[in-house]
Amino acid sequence: MAADLQQEIRRSFNEAARDEEHFPSTIDPRIYHVKLLAEFLGDLDQKRVLDAGCGKGRFARILKERHPPVSVCCMDIAEAMLRAVPAGMERAAGSLIALPFRDAAFDAAYAIESLEHAVDIETAVAELCRVVKPGGRVFVIDKNARQWGRLETPHWEKWFGRRELEKLLRRHCRQVSSRFISYWEDVEPDGLFLAWLAVK
Questions:
Q1: Is the pLDDT of residue 1 over 80?
Q2: Quick one: fold of 3-199?
Q3: Where are the domains of the chain?
Q4: pLDDT in tens, 153-165
Q5: CB 3.0 to 4.6 Å from 105: which of 101, 148, 179, 185, for a disulfide?
Q6: Which residues contact 21 (CB under 8 A, 6 or more apart)?
Q7: pTM higher than 0.85 for the full model?
């Protein structure tokens, strides 16, 4: 990714950190995104988990509240977002296409509505998988390319197809599945959101 584009994305999210309405610090723990993440990651006691593109750490906050022994590392490109991450959590500034961690550093990694900002999706998926231990879990929620145009997006944002991301994950993971999801478990998915679940 060109350095100037990465700087533009960082600057945009540093500015967006002031917008609590559209970039909130918390999330309703009842939404299906949260439930599916928690179910898929399973027992988190004494585990180390990466929240890749964490924003203000809203998902990490819930995981930590539910599993106090878990170690969650919140990583984001925008330092202003990281300042809103709750105290007591590890924070790291970095890019999804060059994660600042050693190989197999985590038991699991997740990217919820952040992979779309990576620009180089292939490299970002490889990086997510690289930092997870063999047998560890990789979890992604993002928007479906077939629904492109439904929402206003910045010029760099990329949505991807269900099979496209499955194929990229299969390069690094032995089990990969995906499903359409909605914010609420009792609401039929409308095709906008997909979840990809992988085991390395």
A1: no
A2: Rossmann fold (3.40.50)
A3: 3-199
A4: 999 999 999 999 9
A5: 101
A6: none
A7: yes
